[in-house]
Amino acid sequence: MAEETPYSLAAKVVATLTTNLYVGSSAYISLTEVPARRSLATAEAKLDHFQATFPFAGKQQGLLSIVSLLGTLYGWSQETGDDGRLLLVNAGILVALTVWTFAIILPINLQLVDGKNALKKGDAWVESLLSRWEKTHHVRTIGGLASICCMMGYWVNR
Fold first, then answer.
1. Looking at the predicted structure, is the pLDDT value of residue 107 above 60?
2. What torsion, rounded to 10 degrees, do the Cα atoms 60, 99, 15, 79 define?
3. Which residues, other chains included, contact 116 with Cβ-Cβ below 8 Å and sequence gap of 6+?
4. pTM for the predicted model, two decimal places
């Protein structure tokens, strides 16, 4: 195996760190924010909570995903060993999660952040959409855990 460059190693470390932060953030949302939102008494309160947290979470998740994907791809492109396939699998998972986010989750997000127009559709509509959002977000969290397993497997097998 050829000697690894400092840039390649740095990219893999950054990819690992951002992958873990991305998944940790996603897990926090699934395990903490979702139950907290569910505990609120009214659909309006739940919608207000979602609208307050979404802009921050969306920016954080997006940035971490992009940095993780770029670091993973660069690290894979510089990899000379067989273990590089785990980096490629991780990149594939990150791409799939990005497609999932844009195709499935984002349309729900846009309906929920549509100000008071969302409330005009009724409490049952808001509750139903929040429930759909929760389920789709949990899929992203589980996919992220697979991503962590790839990165962990890469480092263990090095």
1. yes
2. -170
3. none
4. 0.91
In 10 A of CB 107, how many CB atoms? Answer: 11
- The string of pLDDT tens digits covering residues 55-65 is 999 999 999 99
Rounded-to-integer distance, Cα 71 and Cα 77, Å: 10
Q: Locate 43 and state its tokens.
A: 């659909």
pLDDT for 123-147, tens place per residue? 999 999 999 999 999 999 999 999 9
Residues 18/60, Cβ–Cβ less than 8 Å = no
CB 133 within 8 A of CB 29: no
User: Which contacts (CB < 8 Å, 24+ apart) does range 88-96 have?
Assistant: 89/150, 90/15, 90/19, 90/147, 90/150, 90/151, 90/154, 93/143, 93/144, 93/146, 93/147, 93/150, 94/19, 94/65, 94/68, 94/69, 94/147, 95/69, 96/143
In Å, what is the CA distance from 61 to each residue of 4, 18, 34, 53, 120? 29, 10, 16, 12, 29
Q: Indicate the average pLDDT of the chain.
A: 94
